[in-house]
Amino acid sequence: MEEEKIKPTKKGGKNMTIISVAIVAILAVIFFLIKSAKDEFDSIDMDMTSDNLVENVESLGQDEKDAEENIEEFDISAKPFEFSIKEIRVKKGDKVRINLSIESGIHDWVIDDFSSATSQLSAGQSGFVEFIADKTGVFEYYCSVGNHRQLGMVGKLIVEE
Ligand SMILES: [Cu+2]
Hints:
Immunoglobulin-like, elongated
């Protein structure tokens, strides 16, 4: 009789031990997760202190600005042997869109420095090209048809900081 009474108690004790170990293990995992999350949070906090906070907020604003993407659009018409716009000025990071329409002859609009070009278009046609002005400087655009470039069918793209 006594043995039978002890047995279930022993069994229960064993189960309790397993459960306790499991709980401790789970708590350890939770603690570890919380701690690593907190460490991460603390390191973010560090960057957000005083002056850095202002910088971070400002750069956040800058990122939003970039995400909006400032598109600079230019309508250029072409005839032998000139473009209606000979100088384009944009800011670095701007998306540039060139809408080219052809008055007479066959022309295109090419800028090697940004590996961009419209297709060759004939009178009455229009096309466009878009690219990001991702570097500053003065770059030449031109018409690649025949010797149009040599005949002065060129212009300047000025990208400012
Ligand atoms: Cu041309």
